[in-house]
Design a protein that fits this description.
Length: 458
Amino acid sequence: MTKAETSIAVPPPASLHEVSAADYDPSVDRKVDEAREQQQQQRDAAPPATEVEVDEEDDIDDMFSLDTEAGEKPKKKKTIRVKKTKNGVALPDATAAGGPAHAGLTSNWDDDEGYYRIVLGERIGPKGRFHVFANLGKGMFSEVVRAKDLGEDGKGSGDSTPDVAIKIVRSQETMYKAGIKEIAHLQKLARLDVDDKRHVVRLVSHFTHRGHLCMVFENLAMNLREVVKRFGKDVGLNLKAVKAYAHQMLLGLALFRKAGIVHADLKPDNVLVNEAKTTLKICDLGSAVDVNEMDLTPYLVSRFYRAPEVILGLPCDASIDTWAVGCTLYELYTGRILFPGRSNNQMLHLIQETKGKVPTKLIRKGQFAHLHFDETNTFLAHAAPTAANSARVVLPTSPVNGQDLKSRLASPQVLRGLDEQEARRTQAFVELLGRMLEVDPAKRITPQEALRHAFLAA
Ligand SMILES: Nc1ncnc2c1ncn2[C@@H]1O[C@H](COP(=O)(O)OP(=O)(O)OP(=O)(O)O)[C@@H](O)[C@H]1O
């Protein structure tokens, strides 16, 4: 492997290679992308399975021996993408059946931004079925509360009052419609997974409360970013836990593929675990899209988890979720963000340092490739977030010395410190990661193939 030969040396800032997953605040990341996406949308005013049989559940009890403590919940922001076209799912009129009649406006029940002013102790839902007792957080799209389910008659009795999580969508028409679409996707996935074995969060019911769409979910404990922060800050989780989580996420991805749905926002924040941290569920389908209705936008998926084909403007499909899960697994194992680029251009730079230069055929076909490569297909590293003052960087086809996954995770020095079995497992993990992070989406491993990979099969 040779070090990058740079005609003008403009590597990404050294600090970019070392970003702790625990320090990452997704809301900052999102704001930048939102602004860019809005610009992009204004510019483009006009507007892609097979099942797999796998054993359930690895035993990951006792993997997290630390006591839990109240952790800080990362604040997140989300870009809402609502297509004008319908996706075969009947979308009710937002203003009908208790929808946001005052869409865009606020009422006494709402704050200035259309969030419902939740009062702890309040009972919401048909017959006051849900007794709200805790706030779980606020996102761009909704606020999430925890409530007791008092049953259909709203009376609740003793043992039969399970906790649920309710996502109360902001009172805004586009968000209401996005919520309806999220419900349709969740219902489709649940129909294909009757036994609830594919690790996608279950929607219990939904209703409208004072103009707000409310989605009632099974209750889970925390998301994977919080898990890493609490149990693996800066060092990551052990390989056994990573293996179990990888297995479950891939089962989820296989289901998405089967359903023809792309999640399009997979990252540690959008994967929840139960109290025992043994089972995970993929959540937040607010950006999910039918594979046949994917738009070309360079800002799809949260930036650190964004696949190169998104940035390059190539046709996208479910493979973008595999890439995002690859980035997520690296983060779980190391406690560090794999590609912490501050722009799409820096993302491409970091990706190429780790994976080698983007193949010329992809550059040629990518609609946005001209923003990052010159006419000789040489990479242009931007000094600023814009393409201005960019410098040509001649990248080798192989990874930059020390940046490839093997050097990072399974160098001879690292392997020497492990027993034989652990060394073999680590190597298998790195091999699988490499396959999930193939730059060419056509060569990227599918979830079904990944589930048969030595790392998971062993
Ligand atoms: N079923 C659940 N059980 C427990 N907590 C949940 C559940 N669903 C969501 N949460 C919590 O609420 C957070 C936000 O949920 P979600 O991402 O679905 O909402 P959102 O409004 O789309 O958020 P954002 O705009 O930040 O992406 C999750 O990261 C998690 O911490």
